[in-house]
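Appendix B, Record 12. Input sequence as logged:
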Amino acid sequence: MSSPSSTSGVCAALLVWALVVTAAGDGSDASFAGVIPLLATAPVSIVLLLLPGGPMTVIAAVVGGALANAAVIGWCARTLRHGGRPAG
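Logged structural output:
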């Protein structure tokens, strides 16, 4: 099972890739590069993307989605490790 930190690392790598491809602007990949990080961090990033703003809103949406997904994955991992019993 992947850890929350590795999940955030993958999302960060996807975001950096999308920014580089978009900044280079050559080829058909540039127009859809930003979609990949948004899909990787959905559903939170899709909701945050509805906020007004420019490119910083997209970056904030991906970061917020990655953190939310990492928290959920961490919670699921802890719950499964304890066999569904409450911790304590």
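The chain has a mean pLDDT of 80.
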